[in-house]
Amino acid sequence: MSDIEIKRGYEILPDNSVKFGIRIINSSDFAISDVEVLLDYTESLFNLEGNKIQKLGNIPPTIVRTAKFILKPLGCVHKENVGATVLYKDHKWEKHVESMRPKEVHCVCPFLKEMSITRSKFLELSSTDNSIEAGINFEGVTVDQLTTFLMQTCTNRLYKVEGYSIEGGKILYLASESIGEKAYYLLTAIIKENEGLTQVMLRAVSDKSYGLNGFMNEITADLRHIVNTVQSAHEIGIIRKEQVINIIDSIVQRTIFNGSGEGAASVNINRSTVIRTKFGVDEDRMIKKQNEKEITNMDDSEVYEYLIEIARNRCNEQNVELDLSSKVGRNKLCEQKIIVTYGDIVKNYTGRTNDIEYISKLWGKNGILNKINKKTIKYDIPILLSALVINQNDFLPSDQFFETWLPNTKDEDKLSTWIKELEKIWQYYCK
Question: pTM of the entire structure?
Answer without folding.
Answer: 0.45
